[in-house]
Amino acid sequence: MFQAGAIKSNEVSDRSLASIEEAELRAEIDNIFPDDGLTITERAYAEYDAEQTSYVKVFNAENELVTQGLTTENDELRQLVNQADFLTQVSGQKYYRISE
């Protein structure tokens, strides 16, 4: 009889432990993936758009700064970036050189 009671109390504590672990796991997942109402596809497009919005600097063959700014706000800058060679990216800024 005593053994049956001990087994039953262990089952109850195991269930409560499992539900605590499940709640902690759900909270951790919610922190990683915010519930912003976006689907996975919409979130991927939003992240892609954010990556495309970058501050760039374009240099000429003599390493002189030709122009700089956000490619999303300046069509001429975007065209220069498309013609230029990518050099490096540092702290969110991308550097390009136009070879003449």
From TrEMBL:
Name of the featured protein: Uncharacterized protein
Species in which this protein is naturally found: Roseivirga echinicomitans
Lineage top rank: taxon: Bacteria
